[in-house]
Amino acid sequence: MDTKTLCLGVLTQGDASGYEIKKAFEDGPFGHIQEIGFGSIYPALAQLLREELVTVTQYTQEGRPDKKIYSLTSAGRLLLLDALDEPTEPDKVRSDFLFRMMFAHLLSPSALEVMIDDRMAVLNAAIAGLQQAADDQFAPASETFINGYALAIYRAMADYIEDNRYQLVGASLMPERAVAE
Amino acid sequence: MDTKTLCLGVLTQGDASGYEIKKAFEDGPFGHIQEIGFGSIYPALAQLLREELVTVTQYTQEGRPDKKIYSLTSAGRLLLLDALDEPTEPDKVRSDFLFRMMFAHLLSPSALEVMIDDRMAVLNAAIAGLQQAADDQFAPASETFINGYALAIYRAMADYIEDNRYQLVGASLMPERAVAE
DNA sequence: TATGGTATATATCGTGACGATATATATGGA
DNA sequence: TCCATATATATCGTCACGATATATACCATA
Q: Do A131 and A55 belong together in one domain?
């Protein structure tokens, strides 16, 4: 799933600027699909424009920078549908947190506790935010599904970490004892 | 977490070749942290060698290509410890599957069912594999923790999808009805 | 028997993603 | 007043990723 296709996807939900596409990948349901930055979005939109998969209208705003609103063309809409028909790629994760947990035995117990507490705080904040979003009765079925999916995963993560953190802290103590003895 | 640091991490568990590092990120507990390919590993190892963070020994094998076994230097081990002290970056996900679910209303019910069934098959296979790995009583605490963490997440995903897939299939029916009427 | 797929093993190359940085203005809080 | 945040676009260098090349051995299947 390249950035161009992701932009086409957001634009099916309505016209948007590059800045608004970025926000959709931060707050909205797209935020649970993946993150993308400006360094990917603006070149992608420029290329979509060259390929006539989107059109632009420039707006001059007072007190704000100019805004370029992009709209899907019918060719762009068709290309998205083609992309959805292609084989689904496996999910990809990248967890800096898990990498650190892999080396719990090289960390001091206090450093490890801080890492786990930080992670729990992030998870609990995400869970709280998603529980509020779950109250929206007028959201489309796909958004409700994705929010619930993310909520289920965050809860599973938080529950597992709370139930099993003692195992890691125990392991992190051992090398220190060995050094002390 | 760049590829160089990831390679240093695997090498703390014992000397390894680039090929063996790749395998560690496919099968072992590192597989749940992130994926990396040869195109990232070999340049990273070459750079680590130049910076004297690892050393190499080349082995000639019979019936197999030559093998380059890399070992951590003390500078390499210290650099890994420094990296573990740096602030933990937030997890990153990239789900081609969720992207498709976001556009369930643009898919035929049969195409949607196939996508969900495929996803369930992948999840159930992963769950079955992890349940076997959970029986290993001699694995280090960190590996047991990570395997259990991955298992908890996969189970949460599978359970949620089974319980809520009907919502999406219902939504995918609607446009077809609209076209038919 | 031949063919094709899988495993072992290293390496490169082009495309594209990512993070940092630049530019400009307005608002809100310390 | 000063700094951070929000709005808005854009570029640039570095790094990651996927595809491809090369070479051999082994196993299954047609």
A: no
- Protein CA A69 to sugar C1' D18 (Å): 33
Contact B106 A142 (CB under 8 A): no
Q: Among A60, A85, A110, identify where a domain stops.
A: A85
CATH code assigned at A35: 1.10.10.10
In chain B, the residue whose alpha carbon lies closest to the alpha carbon of A2 is B96
Predicted confidence at residue A166, as pLDDT, reads: 94
- Examine the predicted complex and report whether its ipTM is higher than 0.90: yes
Q: What is the mean pLDDT of residues A79-93?
A: 94
The answer to whether residue B115 is domain-embedded is: yes
- Nucleotide with minimal C1' distance from the CA of B4 is D15
**How far are the Cα atoms of A10, A144, B147 from residue B153, in angstroms, in the given order?**
27, 19, 10
Which helix H or strand E contains A68, and what residues bound it? Answer: strand A67-72
3-state DSSP assignment of residue A107: coil
Q: Are residues B80 and B100 in the same domain?
A: no
CB within 8 Å of A123: residues ≥ 6 apart:
A154, A157, A158, A161
Considering all nucleic acid strands, name the nucleotide whose C1' atom is nearest to the C-alpha of residue A19: D8
Q: Tell if the CB–CB gap between B91 and A89 is shorter than 8 Å.
A: no
Work out the number of other CB atoms within 10 angstroms of the CB of residue A40: 17
Domain with A139 in it: 96-180
Q: Which of A100, A130, A103, A133 is nearest to A115 (CA)?
A: A100
Contacts of A143 in chain B (CB under 8 A): 102
Q: B141-180 vs A141-180: helix axis angle to the nearest 10? A: 170
Residues B100, B80: one domain?
A: no
Please tell me which residue lies nearest to nucleotide C13, judged from CA to C1'. B39
B138 and B73, same structural domain?
no
Q: What is the reported pLDDT for A134?
A: 83
Confidence of residue A175 (pLDDT cuts 50, 70, 90): low
What is the arithmetic mean of pLDDT over B15-29? Answer: 94
**Number of domains chain B contains:** 2
